[in-house]
Amino acid sequence: MLLWVTVLIGCFTLKWFLGRLKVKNYAEKYVLVTGCDTGFGNLLAKRLDRLGFQVIAACLKQDAAAELKKTSSERLQTLQLDVTSEDNIKSALTKVKSILPSNKGLWAVVNNAGVGGAIGPIECLNRKDYMDSLAVNLFGVIDVTKMFLPLIRKEKGRVVNIASMLGRIALTPAPAPYCVAKYGVEAFSDCLRREVYHQGIKVSILEPGYFNTEIINTQQVHKRFQEAFNQGDSDFQHYYGQEFIDQTKMLINKLPETSSNKLFKVIDAYEHAITARYPKPRYIVGKDAKYFVRLLWTIPEWMSDFVICLNSPRPQGSR
């Protein structure tokens, strides 16, 4: 028994020690971050810039890129990137190559760009709702990674993809298109990590819980929910009823209260994935993701289903 305890303590100590080893020469390392207009991407670009990295911050909107430049050092460079467009990604690749010295590649590509997308009962969602979410949250990750992989290989660098705790377990009333996309990011990242295992490339996934960013702006979530609900036919709307709408909107209103304001925790995880000599394959970020939701994806489904659905809004026709 004592031997096993000693072995366990030794393993945890070694893991703790290796996790604190950092790479060197930040000033010589180039990092591309997508989705830098606001939120995590914006904060990460500024953090990496302060650490001395050569940051290439990709923004969807030109004015957001200009604003980011104002608050950063001269090292940080920006480019406009719509991750839903393959042609736009190719143009971004050309620009990145023009920025990089001839003997350099990319130390890291951070696929941070994301959208909340449509939210509502599956019965009222259409193919476009799913495609709009997948275009950014999944296909954008895949296309950017594929396009920039040779530059990452050149540096034996890393890919860091943001998924979500909703990519491990679907909650309700979480948006199905978002969950589908984030499950896809998990699968893609696992496939990629094993494919490049012998190439010296590291792949990490971030799985944050609920954080107070623009993606859970209650006004916007209300609007997306109502628009999706209105897509349903009259039979659907009669079955679900007004009480279902009111209950769902009450839950949406609680999002800011139940979400964390500690955005720096996600940025800390990003930083570790980029700077650690031995980055983690997965970073579970936030108390809700680490404890409550992690428990839900560990226990049997009949138990997690009961807990998740206990206080979820119910259609008036099901009573």
Describe this structure in words.
This protein is of the alpha/beta class. It contains 13 helices and seven strands. A seven-stranded parallel beta sheet has the order 3-2-1-4-5-6-7, with helices on both faces. Helix 4 runs parallel beside helix 6. The radius of gyration is 21 Å and the shape is globular.
Nutshell version of this structure?
By secondary structure, the chain is an alpha/beta fold. The chain is built from 13 helices and seven strands. Helix 2 (39-51) packs across helix 11 and helix 4 (86-99) packs parallel to helix 6.
Principal-axis shape:
globular
Read across the widest sheet, the strand sequence of neighbours is 3-2-1-4-5-6-7
Strand content: 5-15%
**Low-pLDDT residue spans:** none
Record field, number of beta strands: 7
Average pLDDT level: 94
Structural class: alpha/beta
Order of helices and strands: HEHEHEHEHHEHEHHHHEHH
- Could you tell me how far the N terminus lies from the C terminus, measured between alpha carbons in angstroms? 55 Å
Helix percentage: 40-55%
Number of helices: 13
The largest sheet is: 7 strands, parallel
Rg, rounded, reads 21 Å
